[in-house]
Amino acid sequence: MQANTPRPRCPDCNRPTSHCLCPLISPQPSATQLLVIQHPDESRHALNTARLLTLGLDNAQLLVCEELPPEWQAWLTDPHWQTRLLFPRPDAQPLDSRSCPAPLRLVLLDGTWRKARKLLHVNPLLQQLPAVLLDNPPTSRYRLRKASEAGALSTIEAAAEALATLEPGFERERLLRPFEALINDQISAMGDDVWQRNYR
């Protein structure tokens, strides 16, 4: 019996080539530098929004790890930059130009809440960064995951809101275009009945 042949995938967005999202990705600039630290378990997830996020920005990088490599520890402590962690810690300040003065580096953690907290736990340097949070975040469009915490957003949604808050003229919808297509494609694949029964 012949084994199933894996479907070819786009090397950039990592989607099956028949469902490649790259035509919807239009990278845009930002004065804010973004670092997305992704838990390794999340990198294998089909709905990987961190990859779409970093493809959609000229000034963003994706780091897949649990413990930060030494070179990234130096990046986080560069005295020429103001570095903030976008995470709803109890001491987090509302994100705005006062809590995030330029030149700014913004760090986001990508994973489930449990995995994100593990990233914080094993990296004391992340714990030491001043934390900021989104003030009155919108309802998530991530209709395929049930968040365990109120106001939770996917990584790409959180970044879009943060940059729209910090930088006048930033095109939030331009960044979210492939994300919307990804969600709609997954709902179409599972069928509306299944989606209604499990996610509505």
UniProtKB/TrEMBL annotation:
Signal peptide: none annotated. It holds the Pfam family DTW. Residues 6-191 form the DTW domain. Its EC number is 2.5.1.25. Coiled coil: none annotated. GO terms for molecular function: tRNA-uridine aminocarboxypropyltransferase activity. One of its GO terms (biological process) is tRNA processing. InterPro entries: DTW, DTWD2/TAPT. It comes from the Bacteria. It is an enzyme of class 2 (transferase). Keywords: S-adenosyl-L-methionine, Transferase, tRNA processing. Belongs to the TDD superfamily. DTWD2 family. This is tRNA-uridine aminocarboxypropyltransferase. It comes from Halopseudomonas yangmingensis.
